[in-house]
């Protein structure tokens, strides 16, 4: 027997890579009796219609949230400041308002003041994604075996948190509660800084003269191509992440630059032992990740 | 009908990830009538024996090259300075001496003076590898669809270059001839700098306080784990690469640091357009790599 729907009406504001993956899972698992979508992009809406991802689809976020008992914002962070006030009056009492944004303090800063009394605001962040974007890029297995972090403020209704967590667990995720500031710091080092560095080095390579640039592509199998995959991630989404997690990213970047300068000096002075020591330590870290089944 | 062997006796000095992959291909393709190996590590030799990768196996490089018409050095670069003089007097006239090292100018500097007249010295570099090392990590498909760069000096016997190129083509590789200095510059940006950066950021993450460090592993699926894979590459091999391609690595590192500083400034001042512009350009580069079938 299938489990009964956890939600009567799920509204997804933004139906791109993440939103469409949630829609696919909600459908497959029967998590929501009805799936309503909103997407500002006509091209995305055409794809969503074609893929039959939603029962109803709107351009306008406000229309989609009417009568929904779960609303998940799945747009780039830069759109939140507009979405909050737009949906404010249409949110049903008792509904859960969540999101999937990669930064949590800024989300709370932008959205919390707009959330009406009686609506449960539970920011979320599934640690999953690919370098592709748009409704066609989503798939139901995206969250399988991955973590989903929820950052409710103290005093949030526990039953509501549990209902939202149930959705993520049925998507195959492990759920963890975390302080928003701590989330932003951990993600700055595990996700935001790696992306920033990948974007930078790919940009550096393409600042080289034309002849070298062609060879960079040809011989990219030697390390570079892993960076190009990361640096192919959605430009607007990532612009918004850096603008919204500025402090934590700059802090981690400062540490990284110090460490890089120390290595640079070791190379210049031929200090092989320092290099070998670090490289041996980092190899051990890879093993921890394989053991944690996140490789 | 199988093609006849290209070589009578192939000597592999160092039978790790790359050397053992060459041994597997040489066996599968019947490229060499006899495969002789040398490895200084007793543990590696035990694995090589167990896997039956070589017809004869020695600890000593000099013994392995006796009577070989192709000798390929597959050790970390730091061992070359010792191997050159050690094998010098045992190299047969007419034999080809090659290698698979990731730096070419330093290899030529160290080995060329030791190569006897009548031996064809053709430095090589297959652009392939994994983060694993040792004879057990090798596999015959490692070079399939990848480039192999050869950097013979002007005047090298063309027939000898062609015989070596034939080996690599039978391993599934595309062969390209290149100036050693240009090789070192291209690899500095496509391979050496990406590895240096990956080693650095993994080190930075592990300089964080213990509680954050555990979470870095847990939530590594968000970008970080790709870096940990690269930063799990062989420590000694990579120490030697940085020490031997110092100038080109420091030059590329300088460019990278400038670009990173510019991005850091854009984040600090909230210059979203600059970020989005770069991120849009780098996404296009990924497409070029996919089109070049090197993704």
Q: Could you explain the architecture of this structure?
A:
The mean pLDDT of chain A is about 95. The first copy, chain A, has about 300 residues and is an alpha/beta fold. The two termini of chain A are about 35 Å apart. Chain A is built from 12 helices and 9 strands. In chain A, the strands form 2 sheets. Chain A has a 6-stranded parallel beta sheet. A 3-stranded mixed beta sheet of chain A has the order 7-8-9, covered by helices on one side. In chain A, strand 4, helix 4 and strand 5 form a beta-alpha-beta unit. Chain A has helices spanning about 15-30, 40-50, 60-65, 80-85, 105-110, 160-170, 180-205, 210-220, 225-230, 235-245, 245-270, 270-290; strands spanning about 5-15, 30-40, 55-60, 70-75, 95-100, 120, 125, 145-150, 175. The first copy, chain A, folds into 2 domains: about 5-175, Rossmann fold, CATH 3.40.50; about 180-290, 6-phosphogluconate dehydrogenase C-terminal fold (Orthogonal Bundle), CATH 1.10.3660. In chain A, helix 7 (about 180-205) packs across helix 9 (about 225-230) and helix 7 crosses helix 11. Helix content of chain A is about 50%, strand content about 15%. Chains A and B meet through helix 7, helix 8, helix 9, helix 10 and helix 11 of A and helix 7, helix 8, helix 9, helix 10 and helix 11 of B.
